[in-house]
Design brief:
Radius of gyration: 35 Å
Structural class: mainly alpha
Number of strands: 6
Number of domains: 4
Largest sheet: 2 strands, antiparallel
GO molecular function, one term: lytic endotransglycosylase activity
Transmembrane segments: 27-50
Family: Belongs to the transglycosylase MltG family.
Number of helices: 14
Shape: elongated
Distance between the termini: 140 Å
GO cellular component, one term: plasma membrane
Helix content: 40-55%
EC number: 4.2.2.29
Strand order of the largest sheet: 1-2
């Protein structure tokens, strides 16, 4: 090949490669530009999506939505509840937002929110426990009450009678459904035919706020069971360590509740009862006799002790068939943390003081001393 032809061919190849390179560069530039445009569009779309999700669902809305945040709810649970009720647009964005702002310590309760509320307003309400909804009724249930007494309190506040309340809490179909709904708290033990009221002892004593003018009996019962379960759930691990069933623990707590109103005496009394149980001695506690009789008396007589009832601990061995009242958390804690001692007997004097004894002889002497005063 002549030098001229070689040179010509070289130039042609070089020009072809240059054209190819320019084409590749154009393609790469176009691809990069497209990618940049996609990224910019995605970024803007993401920005506006998040911005929109942080804004009120409907700024001009006057709607009020009642929302219940259960005890123990996580931020994820709260986000889901708010989204399902139309209070926020996106639960995931809500979770990211509160994490970014390091918000926590949200309070359980029944709230009235509006789709017009901002994210910060919702968060502030949840942190402060500010419940917008006005309370229609506030009902206090004291400790140590029977379910019959509880029924009377509610009947005074709402449109149903105490008889209707008691009929509902004795409805076997309803009780079986509650056992399914509260499997950690309620067991088939409460279906025992000898038990007077299946839910006796399980309706917790606190002040309840109602936001309906006339709530159903089911609403009231389940609100109270929710509270009992919330308290008991804090002690599940301790309860599992005991050689007692959940029903026996609730029964035991109710007895401690009725034995003394002095919180500082409860752990010691629990220790005495444990000693009796371990020694196969009858508990012989007067409050169970009164419950067995179904009436209030200031003093238990010797003839009362002979009543043949599964509740009478002078008549049956061990714990009675079921609780005899509701209980305070301190009574439950006494069952879980009894004071260890060698005492098998105790006696209350007229001033509310308690006198313990290791033997029956010491106990009888304490009785004599008290009567001599």
């Amino acid at each position: 090949m002549s030098k001229g032809k070689f040179t010509k061919r070289f130039k042609e190849n070089r020009n072809a490669r240059g054209e190819e390179a320019r084409t590749v560069r154009k393609i790469v530039s176009i691809v990069l530009l497209v990618l940049i445009i996609i990224l910019v569009i995605s970024g803007l779309a993401g920005y506006f999506y998040v911005k929109s999700a942080l804004e009120p669902v409907e700024a001009d809305s006057e709607e009020k939505v009642e929302v219940e945040i259960p005890i123990g709810s996580t931020s994820s649970t709260i986000a889901t509840i708010l989204e399902e009720n139309g209070i926020i647009k996106n639960g995931l964005i809500f979770r990211f937002y509160i994490k970014l702002k390091n918000e926590s310590d949200f309070q359980a309760g029944v709230y009235t929110f509006s789709p017009a509320m901002s994210m910060d307003e919702i968060i502030e309400s949840l942190k402060s426990g500010k419940i917008v909804l006005e309370t229609a009724h506030r009902v206090t249930i004291p400790e140590g009450l029977t379910i019959e007494q509880i029924a009377e309190i509610y009947a005074d506040q709402f449109s149903f009678t105490s008889e209707e309340f008691l009929e509902k809490v004795n409805d076997e179909k309803y009780i079986k459904q509650l056992i399914k709904d509260y499997p950690l708290l309620l067991t088939d033990d409460i279906l025992n035919e000898e038990i007077r009221y299946p839910l006796e002892g399980y309706l917790f004593a606190i002040t309840y706020d109602f936001y309906e003018e006339d709530p159903s009996i089911e609403t009231i019962v389940e609100m109270m069971l929710d509270q009992t379960q919330a308290i008991v759930s804090q002690h599940f691990e301790e309860i599992e360590e005991l050689d007692l069933t959940m029903h026996e623990v609730i029964t035991f707590a109710s007895i401690i509740e009725k034995e003394t109103g002095h919180i500082d005496q409860r752990n010691e009394i629990a220790g005495v009862f444990y000693n009796r149980l371990e020694a196969d001695m009858p508990l012989q506690t007067d409050p169970t006799v009164l419950y067995a009789q179904g009436e209030h008396k200031d003093r238990v007589l010797y003839e009362d002790l002979e009543i043949e009832s599964p509740y009478n601990t002078y008549y049956v061995e061990g714990l009675p068939v079921g609780p005899i009242s509701n209980f305070a958390e301190s009574s439950l804690e006494a069952v879980l943390n009894p004071v260890e001692s060698d005492y098998y007997y105790f006696l209350h004097d007229h001033e509310g003081n308690i006198h313990f004894a290791e033997t029956l002889e010491e106990h009888n002497q304490n009785k004599k001393n008290m009567n001599d005063e």
